[in-house]
Amino acid sequence: MNIFVGNLNYSITEEDLKEIFGEYGELTSVKLITDKFTGKSKGYGFVEMPNADEARKAIDELNGAEAEGRTIVVNESVERKRDTPPRKPGGSYGGFKGNRGPNSGGHPRRDGGNFKPRY
């Protein structure tokens, strides 16, 4: 079972999460989400536990518990569903078409669609 852990103190590490959740059973993986530019924690992560009963016990006992001065949120992670279809290659308007008129397949322009580059 995949478990979401939120409202974490930014100083908590993956090792800390392993220690906290390891008391409830075997862990498959622990992933702390970090900012891709700074490498600092974003304050949430995911823990995966193979045994559903152990995972539910961890969720029940840790949700609302205090960890490093913050009340953490722990619940079952639900896969997000995409409401929109995947974007077309080349951007949201289907790429550059040259003429942006109503029948060009691109975004209609207010001037009737005649694209005139400014030099």
- CATH class bucket of the domain at 2-76: Alpha Beta
Q: In terms of per-residue confidence, which ranges show pLDDT below 50 for 5 or more consecutive residues?
A: none
Q: If helices are DSSP runs of H or I spanning 4 or more residues, what is the number of helices?
A: 2
Estimate percent helicity. Answer: 10-25%
pLDDT averaged over residues: 83
* CATH topology grouping of the domain at 2-76: Alpha-Beta Plaits
Number of strands: 6
Strand content: 15-25%
Describe the global form: elongated
In whole angstroms, the N-to-C terminal distance is 58 Å
Major sheet details: 4 strands, antiparallel
The CATH superfamily of the domain at 2-76 appears as RRM (RNA recognition motif) domain
Task: Summarize the SSE layout with pairings.
Layout: E1 2-6, H1 14-22, E2 29-34, E3 41-48, H2 52-62, E4 66-67, E5 70-71, E6 73-76
